[in-house]
Structure formats: structure tokens, C-alpha cells
What we know:
The chain is mainly beta. It has strands at about 1-10, 15-20, 20-25, 30-45, 50-60, 65-75, 85-95, 100-110, 110-120. The protein contains no helices and nine strands.
Amino acid sequence: xxxxxxxxxxxxxxxxxxxxxxxxxxxxxxxxxxxxxxxxxxxxxxxxxxxxxxxxxxxxxxxxxxxxxxxxxxxxxxxxxxxxxxxxxxxxxxxxxxxxxxxxxxxxxxxxxxxxxxxxxxxxxxxxxxxx
Length: 132
């Protein structure tokens, strides 16, 4: 999900405030500051180890506007636990080139694991505004 704010506390508890799927942008191109992308990855004991995570923002034309990659270490869970949970919170200033549908594509070990879609529009009567 996309949110105004999110965090994972010292005990692993995930808190999310202000979930959204639509942005109203004053003008295009523009930037939406401090968007929090929250990804909750789930796995099995067999997936313990190091994994590459890549997050890419794709605009309505299919162009990649930003990309970040990193490594994630999944540790052995306590005895008896079979499912692994790994919440990720990433913070971005979103570059918005044109109105339309954008997507965050999350790749885990080079395979698409999630796609978070949102719309960006301008108010009626503004440059780049939508017509209904």
C-alpha cells in the first residue's frame, strides 16, 4: 500500500497512517513528497537467507522514473514457526511526469512479487487536469 506515514517498531509491529490510491497534483510534471510504500513480504522457512529486493516506479507511459535495490537478510525463525513475515517501509519523493496510472513494481530475486498501483491527476481546469 501507499501511505502518508508508516513505520516498523523495535518489536516488528507495523503501523500505517493515511492509506491512499489517488493523488491530486497541482501541475505536471510535479513531485509528491514523502510517500511511504509499505510492502509486507511473506515466505516459508525454505526462504531463509539473502534476497535481492528491487523497487521500481513506472509512469503511465511505461517509463521507469526511479529504481532502488538492496539486499534483505531473512533469518531463521523460532522453532515451530513456518511462515516468515518481512514488512518493508520505503520512503520516496514521487516524480510525477504526466497524469495517469503509476505503479510501484517490487521485484524479489528478479521476479515480480508485488505491484502497487495509484492514479495521479490534476484538478479540473488546471494544466494536465482530467476531463470527465
